[in-house]
Request: fold
Amino acid sequence: MSLNDELTAFFRARSGEIPAAAREVMERTDRELAASGQAGRALNVGATAPRFGLPAADGTTVTLDALLADGPVVLTFYRGAWCPFCNLALRALQQQLGEIAARGAQLVAVSPQIPDESLTLTEKHDLAFPVLSDIGCDTAKQYGLSFDLPEDLAAVYDSFGFDLQRVNGGHPHTLPVPAAYVIDRDATIRWAFIDTDYKTRAEPSDILAALDGLI
Reply:
């Protein structure tokens, strides 16, 4: 089963558990974000990847320059550990970590969560790649991925107990559009996946194919 087949199955199994009023808000705001042109404004193939230095779950600072010094980088942006679709996507990437490394590349994930939340996520899912904290989504903004939740959607997330005020370090309404990039050693983006639909993610097999294209 592909990752997106798994995500679709999960959504179908769980959507009936969401109250109708909350589901209406979520569906409407999803349509509005898609219509906003956000995905089209994000950095894409051929652009130079903005440099960053972000804290990892283990307390170290990870920079894009240091990663690129060792080879290509697979960079993925996710919403947070509270998002089950993000968790499924990260686990799928973990399963392909050996294949990514075999191609001389490194994988790194970025979310707006505080380092303690990243550490909990890393330990829970046995992630063996850096999980970085982009509090306030400053790095996501440089990639054109940052957006603010509408008030009614933020209220729905509050009702679900996600506590984004705490886990996002005082920036509860700002999230990244989920995205994945393959960045060559010269910092050029060679492959990109950006989709405002949080239920759709980059297939690990497509990432591996993009890495193969660099060789």
Observations:
- The domain at 3-212 is CATH 3.40.30.10 (Glutaredoxin).
- DSSP finds eleven helices and nine strands in the chain.
